[in-house]
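Milestone M4 deliverable, item 7.
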Amino acid sequence: MTAFRARARRIVTGLLLGLAACPAVAVAQPTAADPMKPREPLPAPAGLRPFVTPSQIAERELTLEEAVAIALDNQPQILARVGDYLAAQQRVAQALSPLLPQLSGLWNGFENQTVSQSTPSATAGVPVSMRRTVTATSQSVSTTASITASQLLWDFGKTWAATDAARAGAESSRQDVELQKDLIALAVKESYFNQLFAARLVVVNAQAVDRAELNLRSARGFFEVGTRPKFDVTRAEVDVANARLDLIRSQNAVSLARIALNTAMGIAVNAPTRVKDILAYEVFTLDRESLVAEALSRRPEHRQAKVRFEAAEATARQTFRDFFPNVVASGTYGAQRPDMNEIYSFGVQLNWSIFDGGNKIAKYRESLAARDAAQARIRDAELSIWQQVEQAHVSLIEAEERIGAAGKAVESAQENFRLGQGRFDAGVGTIIELTDAQLALTRAQSVEAQALTDYRIAIARLERALGRR
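Output delivered:
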């Protein structure tokens, strides 16, 4: 086993030396941009209506509260839901309108032409064969102008039931607005913390590059005085290259996270958004006993399920009352040419569809089934909300516990790297030990940053599950 390890070490050493001795490969590689320099965003397309770029973005770092407020003011998805709600409010007025007086006007004008033929009666001394048919043409103009007014006197509550259904539908649309706001607020928070996480990884990887370059300088110094083999130098060069690659990836992740945050806020995608670093542990206090009750009272999904049941119930009332007649009073007043004689009519009308092939019966049964389904969806919403609160709470506890463990791991990795670097400088440690310690420290710092990010996102998701914004 010892001989196998020695042979494997010689093979790895030979490969690393071979890579270091290939300048042509190095020359062929593209020159990397400065990883610490922000990526240049694409310009806005010509002809597109410009998206807003808030002034505070160019002036300072955004706070989380400011980012959420910008999103609530600018997100097109929220504005679309607001438009749907305004449209639903107008449907309430439409449903109520049959109860109000109806007034209409009518005017028409016609030119009429009639043609008549006649044969003169027998005339003394004129043979029948010589009699001629007489054609007479007459023209007349007729004009009628009238105004008709009608008022629904009684429809057994059909219109009121339809109005109640439309009003519940409008309330459901309003809850759609609140739901969309909650979803956008959560998306902004997640994007905000993801950008902080990406920026934290840039710092971690920049420190890793610094440590790798320091190790490379030490390895070169020892090699030049003959106390270390060339393997240590090539291994250190590989570590520097890998650290720089990680730094480039992390810088690119910052750009992607900024794009996601700008999109979530509904502003220009290429806005140079910077966020305030709040990626730190803060105790999140909560009352375990009241979490589910708070969520049920605040979540728009629960309120929406209730108002949809109310709409279905009102529709069922309306379809039942459709079996009864309508009583309408109407009157018409006007005049007619050529003498502009006064014309009028008025009276009361009862409209009742006695049998329509079972259409009303089927509609009524359909409305009852829809009402039962809406009632079941209330229970489904309650169960779903309870599940989401429970899961978010468990995830929060798990993320909080990981922060402590990750902090201890960073302390141990820092001490291990310090000892490894001391052993290497003293000539008793190997470059492999030092490299492993360096990678372990970078990984521990990354895990700690991920744990802090997960904790803050878990808080945001629990707030979303509770209906907080």
